[in-house]
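User: I'm curious whether this sequence folds into something compact or stays loose and floppy. Could you predict its structure so I can see for myself?
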Amino acid sequence: MKQKMVWYDFMWIWTIVYFILGYFNILFAWLGLIDFTIPLVVALTRGDKWFCNNFCGRGKLYNLLGASLKMSSGKKAPGFISSRAFRYLFLTFFMTMFGVMIFNTVLVAKDAASLHAFVKLFWTFNVPWDFAYVETGLPAWVYQFGYGFYSMMLTSTIIGMVLMFFFRPRTWCSFCPMGCMTQGICRIKHGK
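Assistant: Here's the prediction. I'll summarize afterward.
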């Protein structure tokens, strides 16, 4: 029996809209903070991963492409990907890269560095993205944060897409940094 669709089954649209808006104006990259704060707030208030399981736009996108549109092989991912060690190692790496992004933003804010108008894919490759810089009179650090945040969101979404093609649709979710943090909050709240 097919389940009835609910409005949040369409949260995948949020992910696509986010990337389209950021493509044309990097200031929209700041909207990604919604994806960072809401899961943590939900985990803190509810003590569960309700947001991740029901509202995550990326998870919904991976389900749509992988399961509904049959773009996933459906194979089980290697066990190490869902291991606790790998999740926390990736979380540490991800948060280090987030810290580097914040550091670069602070350097631009203090005029110790100039604005880098590019998106960095896989924390390595600089892709020119200056077409998304729309002068508004805001300080350069605001744009720098946008470029850095968009880079992180795009890189992690691409990683999730690649995993979706080779394995099950939501393989990314098994080590997603936000999921790892919300899981940690839930364990603390429930004394586990």
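Summary: The longest helix spans residues 140-166. The chain has a mean pLDDT of 93.
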